[in-house]
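In the previous chapter we treated chains in isolation. Here, by contrast, the input contains two separate entities that must be folded as one system, with a combined length of 232 residues.
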Amino acid sequence: DTGVSQDPRHKITKRGQNVTFRCDPISEHNRLYWYRQTLGQGPEFLTYFQNEAQLEKSRLLSDRFSAERPKGSFSTLEIQRTEQGDSAMYLCASSSRSPSSYNEQFFGPGTRLTVL
Amino acid sequence: AQKITQTQPGMFVQEKEAVTLDCTYDTSDPSYGLFWYKQPSSGEMIFLIYQGSYDQQNATEGRYSLNFQKARKSANLVISASQLGDSAMYFCAMWGTDFGNEKLTFGTGTRLTIIP
């Protein structure tokens, strides 16, 4: 299967700990997105990469959050000093820019974070 | 800024009946796209259908069709002959070109339950 993969699928941590999530996009996709989805809500945009360049960050992404995409392949999302309000599903999506496509974003299965 | 509104938090539909899920949107972008995603209890976002703002005809994909009324800014999803496997959360989303970042803005979703 060559879809978007995320690791881990579930993470339970104590408040104040640091956590890191990984996303592997579809190999030929140059665009990668991170979204956060809290219970009962739709996903909210966090940040976006085109190749290795981080082009936009949402106001939701506080200083405790950092994302990287070295070499334009996989991406990591790190949360430092986690808070209970960080508990959510973190979704990664990828897409490719093609004149014949409508830039459908393909989503991974998500990482569910629980902060105790 | 873009906004998606889904006013039906939950719907119950008899199996084999057709169902319409409502979605209205607001944007100042002249060019935009509208998506519908399905999210089963497992959490992954599954792409269903896409409608471009300049598309003349309503999009269809198998049992899914999108009733696009541009003047009313609505993009309702119609599922024909509903099946038990259609029970899930359904999200309407849109993108608008913003420095090439086609980030998605999601609504709050509709939980669809198909009754046998």
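Chain B has no helices and twelve strands. The longest strand of chain B covers residues 88-96. Compare these points with the single-chain example from earlier in the chapter.
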